[in-house]
Each structure stands twice: as structure tokens, then as C-alpha cells.
Amino acid sequence: MTEEKTKSKNFTSILIPTSLYKKLEEKMKETEFSSVSSLVTHIVREYLAKLKEEKEVFSEEEEEEIKERLRALGYID
């Protein structure tokens, strides 16, 4: 299997407005990113990580601590 075919299996294309692409292209020049694709990948990963953090109100450790306190108070078994 050629390298090009391997690469295509690991990536996909998305469509964005040209005006947005041009803005990203200008921003990219101010960063260490070498392509708009790598910049967009970084932005999307950060966004998804932030969403995950917002979803998790308590860490597993904090949740267990709360459960222990509720057990000690007799609210749960």
C-alpha cells in the first residue's frame, strides 16, 4: 500500500466557507502551525477537551468523597 493511500485512511476532508479559510490562513502565519489543517485540528481538539471538562462536574475522586460523606450522614447505603 502506498504512503498516499495510507494517509487518506487517516484523514478526511471537511468543507468550510472560503472566507473562514482565508481568515484561518492569516492566523496560521502568526503561529507555529505549518498548515490550516493542522491549525484547525488543534482548535477542534482544544474545543472538544473543553467540552469534556465542562461535562465533568466532579472528578471521580471528588464524587467518591461526596458519596462517603453522604453515607456517613446516613443519606445513602
Which range best describes the helical content: under 10%, 10-25%, 25-40%, 40-55%, 55-70% or over 70%?
55-70%
- Kindly give the count of domains: 1
In round numbers, the mean pLDDT is: 86
Termini gap: 58 Å
Binned strand content: under 5%
Q: Can you tell me the residue ranges where pLDDT is under 50 for at least 5 consecutive residues?
A: 1-6
Strand/helix succession: HHHH
Structural class: mainly alpha
| Largest sheet: number of strands, sense, barrel closure | none
Radius of gyration: 22 Å
- Cα shape: rod-shaped
Structure at a glance:
This protein has four helices and no strands.
Structural description of this entry:
This protein has one domain (16-72). The protein is mainly α. The chain is rod-shaped, with a radius of gyration of 22 Å. The longest helix is centred in the middle third of the chain and has 20 residues, at 36-55. The protein has helices at residues 3-10, 18-28, 36-55, 60-72.
Q: Which secondary structure elements does this structure contain, and how are they paired or packed?
A:
Layout: H1 3-10, H2 18-28, H3 36-55, H4 60-72
Keywords:
77 residues, mainly alpha, 4 helices, 68% helix, rod-shaped, disordered N terminus
